[in-house]
Specification:
Length: 83
């Protein structure tokens, strides 16, 4: 939409802002929950934009699904191992 370099820069900025907001929530700063939700929405929008820019919707979803399934396998293994 704004060119690859600009899109990637905006993605980095939004992820950094979300990370900062997460730190505010950890430190129990007033209004941090709402700040984090707003920044996550911004980061999510830019993430979707970059995925589309890369024409990688299917590939992204395959990676996401693999990682979700792996997480559940690890959780199940941890539960069965008594962790």
């Amino acid at each position: 939409m704004w060119g690859e370099k600009n899109e990637l820069t905006m993605l980095m900025e939004e992820f950094c802002e979300a990370a900062t907001a997460a730190g505010h929530l950890i430190r129990e700063r007033e209004g941090a929950r709402e700040e984090l939700i707003e920044e996550l929405a911004d980061a999510s929008m830019m993430m979707e934009s970059v995925i589309q820019m890369l024409d990688a919707e299917k590939e992204f979803e395959q990676h996401r699904q693999f990682k979700i399934e792996r997480m559940y396998r690890r959780l199940e293994k941890g539960i069965n191992d008594g962790e």
